[in-house]
Amino acid sequence: MERVHSRKLHDLRRRVLRADNPEVPVVDPRDEQPTSLHFGGLEGSRLVVSASFYPSTPPMNPWLATYQLRYMATDFDVQGLGYGGRVLAFAEAELRRLGAEQIWANGRDSALGFYRASGWSIVEGSQYQSLETNLPHTVIFKRLVSDPTAA
Fold this sequence. Notes:
Mean pLDDT: 94
Distance between the termini: 36 Å
Radius of gyration: 15 Å
Low-confidence stretches: none
Order of helices and strands: EHEEEHEHEEE
Helix content: 10-25%
Number of helices: 3
CATH architecture: 3-Layer(aba) Sandwich
Largest sheet: 8 strands, mixed
CATH superfamily: Gcn5-related N-acetyltransferase (GNAT)
CATH class: Alpha Beta
Protein backbone atom coordinates (compact mmCIF):
# COMPACT_ATOMS: atom_id res chain seq x y z
CA MET A 1 0.00 0.00 0.00
CA GLU A 2 1.19 3.50 -0.67
CA ARG A 3 0.16 7.12 -0.97
CA VAL A 4 -0.65 8.05 -4.55
CA HIS A 5 -1.81 11.06 -6.55
CA SER A 6 -5.59 11.22 -6.93
CA ARG A 7 -5.36 11.09 -10.75
CA LYS A 8 -4.05 7.52 -10.48
CA LEU A 9 -7.35 6.52 -8.83
CA HIS A 10 -9.81 7.89 -11.39
CA ASP A 11 -10.00 4.80 -13.60
CA LEU A 12 -10.62 2.45 -10.67
CA ARG A 13 -13.16 4.86 -9.15
CA ARG A 14 -15.05 4.99 -12.44
CA ARG A 15 -15.02 1.26 -13.17
CA VAL A 16 -15.95 0.04 -9.69
CA LEU A 17 -18.04 2.85 -8.21
CA ARG A 18 -19.69 4.42 -11.26
CA ALA A 19 -20.45 1.38 -13.47
CA ASP A 20 -17.67 2.45 -15.89
CA ASN A 21 -19.83 5.35 -17.08
CA PRO A 22 -17.52 7.97 -18.65
CA GLU A 23 -20.18 10.66 -18.16
CA VAL A 24 -20.18 10.36 -14.36
CA PRO A 25 -17.61 12.47 -12.51
CA VAL A 26 -15.05 10.68 -10.34
CA VAL A 27 -13.18 13.76 -9.16
CA ASP A 28 -13.80 15.32 -5.77
CA PRO A 29 -13.24 19.10 -5.59
CA ARG A 30 -10.95 18.42 -2.60
CA ASP A 31 -8.70 15.95 -4.47
CA GLU A 32 -5.92 18.45 -5.10
CA GLN A 33 -5.90 20.08 -1.67
CA PRO A 34 -2.63 19.46 0.18
CA THR A 35 -4.48 18.05 3.21
CA SER A 36 -6.24 15.36 1.16
CA LEU A 37 -4.75 11.88 1.29
CA HIS A 38 -5.02 9.21 -1.42
CA PHE A 39 -3.98 5.59 -1.01
CA GLY A 40 -3.68 2.74 -3.43
CA GLY A 41 -2.58 -0.85 -3.53
CA LEU A 42 -1.01 -2.72 -6.39
CA GLU A 43 -1.11 -6.28 -7.60
CA GLY A 44 1.98 -6.36 -9.75
CA SER A 45 1.84 -3.04 -11.57
CA ARG A 46 -1.99 -2.82 -11.58
CA LEU A 47 -3.83 -0.58 -9.11
CA VAL A 48 -6.46 -2.80 -7.46
CA VAL A 49 -7.63 -0.82 -4.42
CA SER A 50 -8.13 2.86 -3.61
CA ALA A 51 -9.26 5.08 -0.78
CA SER A 52 -9.26 8.85 -0.46
CA PHE A 53 -9.52 10.85 2.78
CA TYR A 54 -10.46 14.50 3.20
CA PRO A 55 -10.39 16.63 6.38
CA SER A 56 -14.02 17.07 7.34
CA THR A 57 -16.42 18.16 10.04
CA PRO A 58 -18.41 14.97 10.60
CA PRO A 59 -22.11 14.59 11.36
CA MET A 60 -21.11 12.81 14.60
CA ASN A 61 -18.52 13.77 17.26
CA PRO A 62 -17.72 17.10 15.55
CA TRP A 63 -15.14 17.95 18.24
CA LEU A 64 -12.81 15.20 16.99
CA ALA A 65 -10.17 15.76 14.29
CA THR A 66 -11.82 13.84 11.47
CA TYR A 67 -11.28 12.77 7.88
CA GLN A 68 -13.99 11.62 5.50
CA LEU A 69 -13.39 8.47 3.45
CA ARG A 70 -14.60 8.63 -0.15
CA TYR A 71 -14.07 6.53 -3.24
CA MET A 72 -13.13 3.31 -1.48
CA ALA A 73 -12.89 0.82 -4.34
CA THR A 74 -11.50 -2.67 -4.84
CA ASP A 75 -11.27 -4.04 -8.37
CA PHE A 76 -13.85 -6.72 -9.07
CA ASP A 77 -11.51 -9.66 -9.57
CA VAL A 78 -9.70 -9.17 -6.24
CA GLN A 79 -12.65 -8.37 -3.98
CA GLY A 80 -12.64 -10.53 -0.88
CA LEU A 81 -8.86 -11.06 -0.96
CA GLY A 82 -8.04 -8.56 1.81
CA TYR A 83 -6.96 -5.55 -0.24
CA GLY A 84 -9.70 -3.34 1.21
CA GLY A 85 -8.76 -4.14 4.78
CA ARG A 86 -5.08 -3.59 4.06
CA VAL A 87 -5.59 -0.20 2.43
CA LEU A 88 -7.78 0.92 5.35
CA ALA A 89 -5.22 -0.26 7.93
CA PHE A 90 -2.43 1.53 6.06
CA ALA A 91 -4.50 4.73 5.77
CA GLU A 92 -5.58 4.61 9.41
CA ALA A 93 -1.95 4.37 10.56
CA GLU A 94 -1.04 7.39 8.44
CA LEU A 95 -4.07 9.35 9.64
CA ARG A 96 -3.27 8.59 13.30
CA ARG A 97 0.29 9.79 12.70
CA LEU A 98 -1.18 13.05 11.37
CA GLY A 99 -3.39 13.47 14.46
CA ALA A 100 -6.72 12.22 13.14
CA GLU A 101 -9.05 10.95 15.85
CA GLN A 102 -11.92 9.68 13.73
CA ILE A 103 -12.88 8.74 10.17
CA TRP A 104 -16.35 8.66 8.68
CA ALA A 105 -18.03 7.83 5.38
CA ASN A 106 -21.29 7.45 3.56
CA GLY A 107 -20.96 3.69 3.20
CA ARG A 108 -22.80 1.70 0.59
CA ASP A 109 -25.19 -0.62 2.35
CA SER A 110 -23.80 -3.52 0.28
CA ALA A 111 -20.40 -2.93 1.96
CA LEU A 112 -21.57 -2.47 5.57
CA GLY A 113 -20.48 -5.99 6.55
CA PHE A 114 -16.94 -5.18 5.40
CA TYR A 115 -16.88 -1.91 7.34
CA ARG A 116 -18.31 -3.50 10.50
CA ALA A 117 -15.63 -6.22 10.32
CA SER A 118 -13.04 -3.43 10.03
CA GLY A 119 -14.24 -1.80 13.28
CA TRP A 120 -16.59 0.84 11.90
CA SER A 121 -19.89 1.80 13.60
CA ILE A 122 -23.21 2.68 12.00
CA VAL A 123 -25.03 5.91 12.78
CA GLU A 124 -28.51 4.56 13.47
CA GLY A 125 -31.28 6.20 11.44
CA SER A 126 -28.83 7.64 8.86
CA GLN A 127 -29.85 5.45 5.93
CA TYR A 128 -30.52 7.25 2.65
CA GLN A 129 -30.54 6.78 -1.12
CA SER A 130 -27.47 8.36 -2.78
CA LEU A 131 -28.29 10.83 -5.53
CA GLU A 132 -24.92 10.07 -7.19
CA THR A 133 -25.38 6.30 -7.46
CA ASN A 134 -29.06 5.69 -6.66
CA LEU A 135 -27.86 3.06 -4.15
CA PRO A 136 -28.72 2.83 -0.44
CA HIS A 137 -26.07 4.26 1.90
CA THR A 138 -25.62 4.62 5.65
CA VAL A 139 -23.39 7.02 7.58
CA ILE A 140 -20.57 5.10 9.30
CA PHE A 141 -17.60 6.08 11.45
CA LYS A 142 -14.59 4.74 13.28
CA ARG A 143 -12.73 6.24 16.21
CA LEU A 144 -8.97 6.09 15.70
CA VAL A 145 -8.21 7.06 19.30
CA SER A 146 -10.25 6.90 22.49
CA ASP A 147 -12.32 9.98 23.15
CA PRO A 148 -11.56 11.46 26.57
CA THR A 149 -14.77 13.56 26.43
CA ALA A 150 -17.03 10.52 26.08
CA ALA A 151 -19.32 9.84 29.02
